[in-house]
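FW: tagging you since you asked about this chain on Friday. Here's the raw sequence from the shared folder, copied in full. Didn't touch anything.
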Amino acid sequence: MFNRKLLGGFVLGICATLMVMWIYRMFLLEKHVPYAISINVTDSMLGKVKIKEIVKDLEQTESTIEKINSVSKRIDDILIFGGVIVTLLIAINVGVYIKAESEVEKHFKDNFEKVKEKVEKRVNEIEQIATKAQIEFAAISALKEKVTMSNSQSTNQ
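HL: got it, structure written out here
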């Protein structure tokens, strides 16, 4: 039912999407640690949390979140357009398949009688050849029996 190349394309597309998502997560998201984790443990233990560093970290975190949201929106757009393209390709393949099926059915209906007549003609020819071969076989068998009988009579005398 399914074309193996089409199924392979789907699997390859899914693998490529998962790989892009994994690379994005490993190289872009892991570098940006959330604000709650970015405060040093030693500073908080000593009670010397530096306000300037917290503000700086907060600004970096906000800009990072904006960048991540922007990239996320772009990836969403790409995935949506990719989905639309894949859907259109599937629709085209289905349309071509249905058209080819209807063309074959139409051709079969139009040419069925011609093909049937050709097949019947060939069957009649083959039957005539088979009948002729049976007659010749019977004649050869009868001749062979006569020769065998005459040889046996001549040897007996």
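FW: Residues 16 and 22 are 10 Å apart (CA to CA).
HL: agreed, and The helical segments are 4-29, 35-38, 41-46, 51-156.
FW: great, closing this out.
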